[in-house]
Write a structure and sequence with these properties.
eight-stranded mixed sheet, 2 domains, three-stranded antiparallel sheet
Length: 397
C-alpha cells in the first residue's frame, strides 16, 4: 500500500472534475470501499485518511474524494445540495466500476453518512453500508446554520462560518435537506447496515443513531464509539472505526473477493501491492501483515521480514522446549525468548548475520535441567534450518 495514495479525478454529473485518492491494499482486494467525508470537510481530514488507511491495511481498495466545491474538487459549494452529494457518490461508484471494480462497501462520516444511505440503493453492487456519527435527518445540518437562516431566507443566500471557514449557502440547499427522508432511503436499501456513533457526540446526538437503526431493515448492527468526539479527532478512535468496519463488512462480501488460501496445507502465500512495502501473508486460514517502518518508506502496519524470521525462531524455540519439558514432566511454567538480529564483520571482514537469543524459564528446575533445556532450544527445527544448507528454488508462475 502506498503511503502517498494515488491521485485520481473523475467527472461529476454537472461536469466538474472531482478529486479523489485511491489507497491500495497489499494484495488482491477483499472488496472496494467508497468513503464520504463530513459536511464541509474533505477527503484529507485526519479521520478520513486514518479510516481509509485502516481499511486498506485490512485488504480493501479504498477511494475517498472531495464533494463538488470542496477540497481539490472543481465547482462552487454554493451550487451544491444534499442531493448533489448523493449524485457525486453515484458518479464515484460509476468511475470505480469502469476503472477497478464497483464499491461493495460504502462508509460515510456525519452528513456523508446520511449521503451514503441515500446513495446505497442506486449502486447495485453495494453489500454493506457503515455510518459514523450520521444524522437521522439531513435537515439536522440546519442547526449549524441557525444564526444565518434568516439572512439566507431573506436574501436567497448568505456567507456563513463553519469550522472557522466561510461558505456561501443558498436557499436551495435548505430546501433540499428539508425534503430529504432517510427513512425512505433506508426502506429501499438492500445492503447490511452498521451504525457507529459516540454517546459523547456534541454535534450529532446519539439519538440519531437510534432513529437510523430502528428505521433500517436487518441485517443491522450498532457499535458505540465511547469517548470519541464527532470528528474522531483522536487517532485511536479513527483507527478503531477502520478496524471494526473492515471486520464487519468482510462478513457480507463474496468469497471470491477475499485473499485465497494457499493451495497446500504447508504452503505460505505472500501478496504485495503495486506500491509500498505492505504485504499480506496467508497460511491455511491465517492472514497477517508484513511491512517496514515509516522511516524507510513503509507504513509500520506489521513486522518486518527479519522480525518475522526472529519470530519463527522464537516460536519454534518455545514449542520445542515445551514439548520436551512436558514429556519429561519437568516443572516449566512460562518460557520467554528475546531475540535480536544484527550484522557483524567476520574474520574475513565480510558481514555475518548474528542472532542473539535470551531465554528465560520460569519453574523450579535444577541447574542440570536448565542446561539441558538450553541444549534442546538449539535443536528446534528452525534453529537447525538456519544452520543448515538451504536451497531456494525460484520460478515464475
Amino acid at each position: 500500500m502506498s503511503t502517498r495514495p494515488d491521485r485520481v479525478t473523475f467527472p461529476s454529473p454537472d461536469g466538474h472534475q472531482l478529486s479523489g485518492r485511491l489507497v491500495y491494499p497489499a494484495g488482491p482486494p477483499a472488496g472496494v470501499a467508497l468513503f464520504a467525508h463530513c459536511f464541509t470537510c474533505g477527503k484529507d481530514l485526519g479521520s478520513a485518511v486514518r479510516v481509509s488507511s485502516e481499511l486498506a491495511k485490512r485488504g480493501f481498495l479504498v477511494m475517498r474524494f472531495d464533494f463538488t466545491g470542496l477540497g481539490e474538487s472543481e465547482g462552487d459549494f454554493a451550487d451544491t445540495t444534499f442531493s448533489s452529494n448523493i449524485a457525486d457518490l453515484v458518479a464515484a461508484a460509476d468511475w470505480l466500476r469502469q476503472t477497478h471494480a464497483a464499491p461493495s462497501v460504502l462508509v460515510g462520516h456525519s452528513l456523508g453518512g446520511a449521503a451514503v444511505l441515500g446513495a446505497a440503493h442506486q449502486i447495485d453492487e453495494v453489500r454493506a453500508v457503515a455510518t459514523i456519527g450520521a444524522p437521522s435527518d439531513p435537515g439536522h445540518v440546519a442547526n449549524l446554520l441557525a444564526g444565518d437562516i434568516e439572512a439566507i431566507q431573506r436574501d436567497g443566500e448568505a456567507t456563513v462560518s463553519l469550522a472557522g471557514r466561510p461558505f456561501q449557502v443558498r436557499q436551495a440547499f435548505l430546501d433540499d435537506i428539508r425534503e430529504q427522508s432517510l427513512t425512505g432511503h433506508l426502506s429501499r436499501m438492500k445492503a447490511a447496515l452498521l451504525v457507529l456513533h459516540s454517546p459523547q457526540d456534541q454535534t450529532v446526538g446519539i439519538q440519531n443513531a437510534r432513529t437510523i437503526y430502528d428505521a433500517a431493515r436487518h441485517p443491522k448492527s450498532f457499535v458505540t464509539l465511547d469517548g470519541a468526539d464527532h470528528l474522531l479527532s483522536r487517532r485511536k478512535d479513527a483507527v478503531y472505526v477502520g478496524e471494526v468496519v473492515a471486520a464487519w463488512a468482510s462478513r457480507y462480501l463474496p468469497d471470491r473477493t477475499r485473499p485465497q488460501r494457499a493451495k497446500h496445507s504447508d504452503d505460505v502465500e505472500v501478496y504485495a501491492g503495486p506500491t509500498g512495502f505492505l504485504t499480506q501473508v496467508v497460511a491455511r486460514s491465517h492472514h497477517w501483515l508484513a511491512d517496514e517502518p515509516e522511516g524507510i518508506g513503509g507504513t509500520d502496519a506489521g513486522p518486518t521480514p527479519y522480525e518475522h524470521l526472529l519470530a519463527a525462531l522464537g516460536t519454534c524455540t518455545t514449542m520445542t522446549m515445551r514439548m520436551y519439558a512436558d514429556r519429561k514432566k519437568w516443572p516449566v511454567r512460562d518460557i520467554t525468548v528475546h531475540l535480536r538480529h544484527s550484522k557483524k564483520p567476520g574474520e574475513d571482514g565480510k558481514p555475518v548475520d548474528h542472532i542473539h537469543r535470551d531465554i528465560q524459564m520460569d519453574g523450579d528446575l535444577t541447574d542440570e535441567q536448565r542446561t539441558r533445556m538450553l541444549q534442546i532450544a538449539d535443536r528446534c527445527p528452525v534453529h537447525r534450518t538456519l544452520h543448515s544448507t538451504v536451497v531456494v528454488t525460484t520460478v515464475e508462475v
